[in-house]
């Protein structure tokens, strides 16, 4: 199962060298929990993202974390093209952390620039509980509350209004922690399944379902 995954943009601080980077945590965690998947990183310098994807023929696409929206325009453009390709061909799309925010932005929603300032609660390098709405995600978790890791300041707030195309399945107070598309195979989570402190069994149950079954929540 080939999965195309976006990468963060990193600027070398000592000399001019702009890099694409993907944490080794992704390969390590997928090898442990979903070994049938082959992760193929997407460069942020492609002239034609759709042509590249057409050659790779991914079964699914992952929008990964890192870089606030607007700070790396080449990545913003690449992930917009990835999103469009997935929507046009009905390919399963997973958003993780920044990926959730990007999907919300590209479906007409807004990104809250500082969750800490807006809510008074930091979501950077902490663990916290989230509430799962009744339905398939709570059924998979077999509980209505789970603990997740958190490495973000930007995010999506319920009070700011959710894109009409999306339905929330996980929240932490006013913060949106997980949503799905109402008609397409698009799933996004605000936490990091590739890092320590995530509920791995739950994470990879829903990730595997997404990439093998599509929009399993419909």
**Number of contiguous helices:** 7
Give the total of beta strands.
11
Contiguous uncertain segments of 5+ residues: none
Q: Please bin the fraction of helical residues.
A: 25-40%
**In CATH's first tier, which class applies?**
Alpha Beta
Q: Architecture, CATH level 2?
A: 3-Layer(aba) Sandwich
Provide a quick synopsis of the model:
By secondary structure, the chain is an alpha/beta fold. It has seven helices and eleven strands. It has one domain (2-213): Rossmann fold.
Verbal overview:
The chain has one domain: Class I glutamine amidotransferase (GATase) domain (Rossmann fold), CATH 3.40.50.880. It is globular, with a radius of gyration of 16 Å. The longest helix is centred in the middle third of the chain and has 17 residues, at 73-89. It starts with a strand and ends in a 5-residue tail after the last helix. α3 links the parallel β5 and β6. The chain has 218 residues and is of the alpha/beta class. The chain has a 9-stranded mixed β-sheet with strand order 4-1-5-6-11-10-9-7-8, with helices on both faces. The chain has a two-stranded antiparallel ribbon with strand order 2-3. The mean pLDDT is 93. The chain has helices at residues 24-33, 49-56, 73-89, 98-106, 115-119, 136-141, 200-213; strands spanning 2-5, 8-11, 18-21, 38-41, 60-63, 93-96, 124-132, 145-151, 166-172, 175-181, 186-189. 32% of the residues lie in helices and 27% in strands. The chain is built from 7 helices and 11 strands.
């Amino acid at each position: 199962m080939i999965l195309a995954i976006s990468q963060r943009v990193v600027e070398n601080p000592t000399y001019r060298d702009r890099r694409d980077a993907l944490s080794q945590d992704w390969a390590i965690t997928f090898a442990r929990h979903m070994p049938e998947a082959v992760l193929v990183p997407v460069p942020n310098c492609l002239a034609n993202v759709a042509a590249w994807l057409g050659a790779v023929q991914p079964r699914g696409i992952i929008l990964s974390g890192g870089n606030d929206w607007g700070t790396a325009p080449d990545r913003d453009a690449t992930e917009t093209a990835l999103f469009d390709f997935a929507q046009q061909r009905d390919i399963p799309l997973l958003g993780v952390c920044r990926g959730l925010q990007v999907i919300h932005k590209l479906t007409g929603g807004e990104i809250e620039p500082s969750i800490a300032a807006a809510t008074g609660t930091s979501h950077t390098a902490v663990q916290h509980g989230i509430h799962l709405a009744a339905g398939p995600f709570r059924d998979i978790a077999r509980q209505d509350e789970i603990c997740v890791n958190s490495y973000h300041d930007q995010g999506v707030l319920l009070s700011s209004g959710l894109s009409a195309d999306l339905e929330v399945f996980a929240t932490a107070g006013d913060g949106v922690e997980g949503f799905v598309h109402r008609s397409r195979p698009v799933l996004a989570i605000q936490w990091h399944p590739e890092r320590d402190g995530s509920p791995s069994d739950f994470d990879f149950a829903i990730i595997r379902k997404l990439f093998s079954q599509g929009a399993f929540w419909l």
